[in-house]
Structure formats: structure tokens, C-alpha cells
Task: inverse folding
């Protein structure tokens, strides 16, 4: 791996209200190492601390604890102007009295880039983001999507050590969004631009980022590539947060039988039988040690049509390219996805089975992953 | 707009006419009075037909008032100048102090912030006499009574709260991210404040400045108590026309016309700003 460009070391952020009890610890002991040229997405639900993190890196919020290093310099004490960071804001924040062109050229002017060079750069950016026609217009007279692209252009046109993008594509139309995602990623990679983007949209994170940092309640849950996040979630939170529709989970008791196992669901006592499957060490030892676990099953892994288990259909929806089926199983709702059009009727009892290699095992106590079926 | 029928239009016209008559009549009457002699004004019944004379304006401008009881020097033009000087300086000082303060209240939460802002606003609730009595005593002691400095200082009670609260609302309406974007582009906090925040809040600042100018101009009681003739504004200066030999209605009227004119012109000129500035939310990014 190449050199580290941005490094957050045990960064903490607490917002103090009027009273001490009202203090909110928005970011907890966050450490991240981001390499030069890497694109990282901070992903999480709203209020998870991702925007606070971004604002601390930019310098609009002070850190309560920890250090931030950019290009090997500690920057957490520097004012925003001295950090050499470019940012595209969620609310666009274009200067109302300036045209789109002047808005984009603004920072270049501050950097004393020559007029001709600045013009060329602005034009290149405008072409890239398809906003050439609105360069002479004022922010108040263009659409939200255009404002967002103008704001993105204003950030990317600068030469900075780090690019921060806060929900960079939220306002774009779906078609344009998918085109621009690919183009943006290419552009960032070609120019070796180290980027941290904040989003709550998994698709966007998956499409743009080399690695994704999943945050929840101020804590980093997992920092991995999109594929790893999907196949090897570090805990139940990441497992259920990543993937659409979300992962099904069932608390179960571990019962070793022969070489294999049976998992007895805690609520209703149904048995998931894998006694013929060869669970090898060290997984075998770990499962025996845990006794109580939470099983995670991706909806795509629920194989409908045959098997020893039965679920009663609650809803069956054809989405044009896949069926989403919700069914009652063991007093809970299990969601299955099938890539063909399924014709199950409401209340119909449908048999299904789950392959051992599709199971995810989590510790019932702390929610951390024990193992993933793939690893067997 | 809805199409109005003829009868509705007539009705509306009559109502508007009544309202205008009600509000404009005193001004109209004073305007007429300013071109009449005291005898003409006091005749019974009053009439709107008379031979206009410029004698009142003459007296005001030359500063010599001739009555049956003798001649009297009046300082009306000095008073007018005092009004202009006091009001403008007071508003200017309030802008210098109030705009950064308004920004601080809008952007930062700090200890006792809301309490301080409210205290400043509460100056507007208290009757002026409440502060006047102690102020008179203190000003005597520290040598501020009958000085421009003292008056401008006291005028802050009028203009500062107004500017602070109107401009604060304006700053709150500007997205902080617009400022953040500018700061990231390599500008200091001060540059951002001067180049981004103030220009964006300009309509609000103009409206607040104008409004407090008018309030300061119209103030009577502070100057009455704290200043003597040579430092008094027109509002107090008009009292000089209540003379031993009678009330000089003609000169009072002319004085009012002259003293209302600057604020009226200012308000007319800046009408757009006033409406825009007082209806918050006029800046949309």
C-alpha cells in the first residue's frame, strides 16, 4: 500500500450543551488511515457522526481529542484556510452574488492561478460535469442538481491535498447520477485525488469508494472494501446495514451433532439442521465455545421452493427484475429475494432451505462476527 | 390578482382615500401652516385659502425671529445640523458595534449569549425616563452631559438593539456553509466576514440602519434632558418657538417640515431596502 495521506488518530468529538448532561459524544475514538489517491466513503445513518468527522477534517469543528494528520502534518489546530483541503458542501453553498463561472473560479483566484489557466480549468470542469451552458447564470436561477454540480466543480477544480465531498450526488437525477459516478471515480483516480465522501446511500458508496467506513453512533464499525463489507461484515450492525433488503437475523442455540451442527432457533425451537456438513476447525471450536449465537442470512441466500423449512408468505412483490418475498418463519419475518418471478400466493406455505456456506455467525452477547459461512 | 368589479374598485378607492386622508391630513395641514403667519393660522374659522408667505422659513434660516415682543435668536439651523450629526454618528457607531455582535450572536453559542442579546433588546422595553435620571447624575460627574459624545452614547439605547436584532436574523438566514466554503478557499475569518457575510446581509443592515436613524432622529426626551441649546436636535429645538409672547405656530410648522424632509426622503429612497430588509428570508442561496 502506498503512503498514508490522511490519518485520524483516536479522534473524539463531544458537543457540549448548556448543561453537562446534555453533552453529546458525536464521534468516539475514531482512527482511520487513508492512502494517497484513495477514495473513502463514510457511510452511516443520519446522526452517526460522519458529517461531524468531515467537518473536523475541514476545520470547521475542533476535535475534542485525538489528532488529524494530512500529508504528515498535524492539522487539527490549523484554521480551515491553512489546511489545503477542498470541500463540496451538501447545501451547495454557492455565493449568491457570483455567476456559476465565478463561483468555480473563486478559489483559483485566491491561489493566484493565471487568468487563462483558470479559464481553461473551469471549462474542463464544466464539461466534465455537464454545466457549460449555465456558467453565466446565477445560483438562484439554476436547479438544485445544477447547483450541486457547480459546487462539486468548485471543490474539484482546486489543487488540494484532500477532497471532502458531502453527499455529492444527492440531488442529481438517477440517470445522470450513474453516469457521473463512473466519470467522477475515473477522474479522481486519474488525478490521484485523495477523497473522503460522506453519504447515506450504499449504492453511491459502493460505486465510488475504494474502501467504506461504516459508522454508527459515533463509532467506526468497519473499514473495508465494498466486497468485504458485504461478505464479511464485522458485526450484526454492519451485516444488517449493508445490503438491500437487509440481512435476516435469528438468535439460535448451537448444538453439535457428529461432525456438524444443529441450530435451534430460540423463539420457537425450529431446527436448522447441518449435521452432515463438515464444519472444520477453528470454526467448529468457536461455535461450540459460544453456544448462543445470532445467525445472519442474506435475502439472496434464502432458497425458496424446496427444503425442510417452511414459511408462510405475507407479501410477494415483483420489482421488474427480482421478486421480494416476505414470509413468516419462527414468529419473525424472513425476507427472500429471487431473480425470477415467483408465483407464491398469500398465506401459502413455502418450503425453503439455507446453504451452510451462506450463513453468517455472530456472537449473541456483543454482536461481533464469529465467522462467515464462506470461510468454511 | 383577481379581477375586481367596478363597484369593488370604487369601494376600495374610497377606503384607500379615507386611510390616506386620515394619515396624511396632519402633515398636509402642517405643510399649509408653514406658509402662513401666526394670525392666519389662528383665525376662526380656519381656511385652506390664504396668501402664502415665506416669512417662517426666512426666520428659521436666518436665525432671527421677529415678534411683537421683540427679536429672538433661534438656533434652528444648528439644531438641524445637530440632528443630522447626532443621528448619523449614533447609527454609524451602532453599525460598527452591532453588526459584528449580531454576527456573533447568530453564529456562535456562548455562555450567557442569549441573556446578553435579550438584555440589549430589553433597552427598548424600558421607558427612557428610567435610565435618564441616573444618567443625568452620572453624566454630570464624568463630564458627559451636554456633549455630543454623551448624546451619541445614550442614543445607542435606541439604535443598537434595533440593529443587533434585525441584522442577527439576517445572518442566521445565511447558510454557514457559504462562509465555510470561502474560508476553505484560503481566507481568514475576518476576510470571510467582510467579503461574504456582510455583503449578503446588506439589505438587512441597510434596513436596520435606516430604521434606527429615523428612531434616533425622532428622539426627544434624551436630548431634552441631557443637552442644552447648542447641542440640541430639532425635536427639542422646536421648543424654542414657545416664547414668552406666544407660541409661534408658523415657525413650528416650518421647522417640522424642514426636519421631516430628510428622513422622509431617506425613507422614500430606501423603501425597497426597508421592505426587503424587514421581511426576513430575502436572501436565498
Result:
Amino acid at each position: 500500500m502506498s503512503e498514508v495521506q490522511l490519518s485520524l488518530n483516536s479522534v473524539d468529538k463531544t458537543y457540549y450543551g448548556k448543561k453537562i448532561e446534555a453533552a453529546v459524544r458525536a464521534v468516539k475514538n475514531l482512527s482511520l488511515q487513508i492512502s494517497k489517491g484513495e477514495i473513502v466513503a463514510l457511510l452511516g445513518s443520519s446522526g452517526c457522526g460522519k458529517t461531524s468527522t468531515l467537518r473536523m477534517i475541514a476545520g470547521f469543528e475542533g476535535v475534542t481529542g485525538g489528532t488529524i494528520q494530512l500529508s504528515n502534518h498535524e492539522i487539527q489546530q490549523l484554521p480551515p484556510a491553512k489546511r489545503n483541503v477542498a470541500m463540496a458542501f451538501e447545501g451547495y453553498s454557492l455565493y449568491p452574488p457570483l455567476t456559476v463561472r465565478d463561483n468555480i473560479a473563486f478559489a483559483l483566484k485566491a491561489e493566484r492561478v493565471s487568468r487563462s489557466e483558470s479559464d481553461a480549468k473551469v471549462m474542463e470542469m464544466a464539461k466534465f460535469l455537464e454545466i457549460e451552458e449555465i456558467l453565466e447564470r446565477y445560483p438562484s436561477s439554476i436547479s438544485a442538481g445544477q447547483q450541486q454540480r457547480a459546487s462539486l466543480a468548485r471543490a474539484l477544480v482546486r489543487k488540494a491535498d484532500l477532497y471532502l465531498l458531502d453527499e455529492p450526488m444527492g440531488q442529481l437525477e438517477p440517470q445522470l447520477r450513474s453516469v457521473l459516478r463512473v466519470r467522477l471515480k475515473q477522474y479522481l483516480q486519474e488525478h490521484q485525488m485523495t477523497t473522503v465522501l460522506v453519504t447515506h446511500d450504499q449504492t453511491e458508496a459502493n460505486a465510488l469508494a475504494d474502501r467504506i467506513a461504516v459508522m454508527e453512533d459515533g463509532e467506526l464499525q468497519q473499514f473495508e472494501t465494498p466486497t468485504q463489507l458485504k461478505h464479511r461484515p464485522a458485526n450484526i450492525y454492519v451485516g444488517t446495514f449493508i445490503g438491500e433488503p437487509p440481512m435476516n437475523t435469528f438468535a439460535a442455540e448451537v448444538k453439535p451433532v457428529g461432525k456438524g451442527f444443529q441450530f435451534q432457533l430460540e423463539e420457537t425451537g425450529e431446527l436448522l439442521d447441518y449435521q452432515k456438513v463438515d464444519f472444520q476447525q477453528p470454526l467448529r471450536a468457536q461455535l461450540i465455545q459460544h453456544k448462543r449465537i445470532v445467525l445472519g442470512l442474506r435475502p439472496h441466500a434464502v432458497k425458496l421452493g424446496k427444503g425442510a423449512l417452511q414459511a408462510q408468505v405475507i407479501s410477494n412483490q415483483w420489482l421488474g427484475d427480482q421478486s421480494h418475498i416476505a414470509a413468516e418463519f419462527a414468529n419473525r419475518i424472513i425476507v427472500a429475494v429471487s431473480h425470477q418471478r415467483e408465483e407464491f400466493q398469500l398465506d401459502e406455505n413455502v418450503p425453503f432451505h439455507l446453504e451452510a456456506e451462506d450463513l453468517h455467525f455472530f456472537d449473541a452477547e456483543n454482536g461481533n462476527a464469529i465467522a462467515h459461512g464462506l470461510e468454511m | 390578482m383577481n379581477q375586481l368589479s367596478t363597484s369593488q374598485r370604487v369601494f376600495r378607492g374610497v377606503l384607500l382615500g379615507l386611510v390616506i386622508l386620515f394619515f396624511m391630513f396632519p402633515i398636509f395641514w402642517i405643510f399649509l401652516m408653514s406658509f402662513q403667519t401666526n394670525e392666519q393660522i389662528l383665525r376662526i374659522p380656519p381656511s385652506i385659502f390664504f396668501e402664502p408667505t415665506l416669512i417662517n422659513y426666512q426666520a428659521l434660516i436666518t436665525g432671527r425671529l421677529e415678534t411683537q415682543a421683540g427679536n429672538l435668536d433661534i438656533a434652528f439651523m444648528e439644531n438641524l445640523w445637530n440632528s443630522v450629526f447626532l443621528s448619523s454618528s449614533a447609527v454609524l457607531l451602532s453599525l460598527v458595534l452591532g453588526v459584528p455582535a449580531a454576527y456573533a450572536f447568530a453564529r456562535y453559542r456562548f455562555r450567557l449569549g442569549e441573556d446578553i442579546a435579550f438584555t440589549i433588546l430589553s433597552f427598548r422595553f424600558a421607558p427612557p425616563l428610567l435610565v435618564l435620571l441616573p444618567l443625568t447624575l452620572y453624566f454630570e460627574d464624568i463630564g458627559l452631559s451636554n456633549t455630543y459624545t454623551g448624546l451619541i452614547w445614550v442614543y445607542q439605547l435606541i439604535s443598537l438593539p434595533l440593529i443587533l436584532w434585525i441584522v442577527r436574523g439576517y445572518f442566521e438566514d445565511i447558510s454557514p456553509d457559504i462562509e465555510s466554503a470561502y474560508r476553505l478557499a484560503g481566507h481568514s475569518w475576518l476576510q470571510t466576514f467582510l467579503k461574504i457575510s456582510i455583503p449578503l446581509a446588506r439589505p438587512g443592515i441597510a434596513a436596520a440602519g435606516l430604521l434606527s436613524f429615523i428612531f434616533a432622529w425622532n428622539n426627544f426626551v434624551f436630548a431634552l434632558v441631557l443637552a442644552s441649546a447648542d447641542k440640541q436636535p430639532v425635536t427639542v429645538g422646536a421648543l424654542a418657538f414657545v416664547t414668552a409672547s406666544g407660541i409661534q405656530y408658523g415657525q413650528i410648522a416650518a421647522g417640522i417640515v424642514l426636519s421631516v424632509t430628510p428622513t422622509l426622503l431617506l425613507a422614500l429612497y430606501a423603501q425597497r431596502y426597508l421592505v426587503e430588509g424587514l421581511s426576513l428570508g430575502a436572501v436565498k442561496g
In short: The first strand of chain B starts at residue 64 and ends at 67. Residues 69 and 245 of chain B are 6 Å apart (CA to CA). The two ends of chain B are 28 Å apart (CA to CA). Residues 77-278 of chain B form a domain with the MetI-like fold fold (CATH 1.10.3720.10).
